[in-house]
Amino acid sequence: MATIRDVAARAGVAVCTVSRVLNGSAAVSPKTKARITDAMAELDYVPNELARGMFRQKSGIVSMLVPSIRHMFFGNLAHFVERELYRHGYKLMLCSTDGKKEREAEYMRTFRSNLVDGVILGVASLDLDVYENFKKPLITTDIRINDSIPVVVSDNDTGGALAADAFIRRGCKCVIQLISASERFVLSLQRHLRFAAKLRDAGIAVQDVEIKWDEFDYHGYQELAQSILDAHPEIDGVMAADMPACAFLKAAIRMGRRVPEEFCVVAYDGTYLAHVNTLDMTAVSQPLDEMAAKMVEVLLELIDGSEVKGTYVQLPVSFRQGETA
Predict the structure, then answer these.
(1) 221 within 8 A of 156, measured Cβ to Cβ
(2) Cis before 260 (ω within 30)
């Protein structure tokens, strides 16, 4: 494998001149630059990106830390973030805590090195000073740490109201919603509060079922759905993230419940998973592509040292009428 010294020798220049070309310096004549790029092509030279990053104090890598890659919201959001970063010449390092504080702490220590230029957080379970004293560009999604760390989020209040309206229109009497076990700073809690308040105002009973990020895979959600519906036949509706919503829909159909006449399902997130069932699920959709684009835009502004206008960015959700509510 060719080295930078081989390139310098082939081009008849010093190693430092090759380094200047690799790092985009203007202090190299076009004629010399052409000789160096020709030499790199002839030798099939591949620059060491990490070494270049250390030299420039930039790596061209952004990390995204989420509670679980298996969660459809974060998996799909990461897809759009990676696509947007690549468009701007950056690479994505995707990391998952699996709900473990020690893993988050370890990753945060790693991020402090020159390995990444900035971080997108989808989880925050450590002491506040870990984030407030973080020396690299940092933004969050669904988490409000303080007024200086930017956050990009969808309109949870409207989303909760839109979901509630679907059950009210169907005349449901007893609805449950699946909610993640409480974490600090999580803004999505507002959707559940608004959902419950609007249903209760309409005289509809609503109950929260708390789950942990890392507690269930799809098989686990199926078991949960079956056990709840077996024990509580009075339940005639459920609002949940896409994957557990799919599990409840399947369990209800298996039990002979007519959907949506006897049992209603509203998925929250609106990823492709909400639309691959026998019945197309009614869903509140978060604008994942727009959220990703905005997160990358804000983070790159921080990386470039630009001033960020406003640290709270809220994007609108949409309601998709399906066949389940």
Answers:
(1) no
(2) yes
pLDDT value of position 235? 97
- The greatest distance separating any two alpha carbons of the chain, rounded to the nearest whole angstrom, comes to 83
Predicted model pTM: 0.81
Residue 322 belongs to a domain = no
In the chain, the number of structural domains is 3
In a domain, 52, yes or no: no
Looking at residue 53, what is its pLDDT? 54
Identify whether residues 136 and 197 lie together within a single domain. no
Query: How far apart, in whole angstroms, are the C-alpha atoms of residue 235 and residue 313?
Result: 36
Would you state the structure tokens that stand for residue 302, as one six-digit string? 């921080």
Average pLDDT for residues 93-102, to the nearest whole number?
90
| 249 alpha-carbon distance from chain centroid | 25
Stronger pLDDT, 204 or 181, i.e. the higher one? 204
Rounded to whole angstroms, the Cα distance separating 70 from 79 reads 12
The CATH number assigned to the domain holding 271 equals 3.40.50.2300
Residue at 261 is within a domain: yes
> Running DSSP on this structure, what letter comes out for residue 311?
S
- The verdict on 150 and 230 lying in the same domain is no
Q: In the structure encoding, which two tokens stand for residue 297, read together? A: 């835009």
Residue 39 lies in domain: 4-47
Residue 320 maps to a domain: no
Q: Estimate to the nearest angstrom the gap between the alpha carbon of 48 and the chain centroid.
A: 29
User: Is 189:182 a contact under the CB 8 Å cutoff?
Assistant: yes
User: Tens digits of per-residue pLDDT, 21-64?
Assistant: 876 666 788 888 889 888 888 888 876 655 555 445 677 899 99
Query: What per-residue confidence (pLDDT) applies to 48?
Result: 63
Q: What strand order describes the sheet that includes 174-180?
A: 205-211, 174-180, 237-241, 264-269, 282-285, 318-320
d(CA 245, CA 232): 17
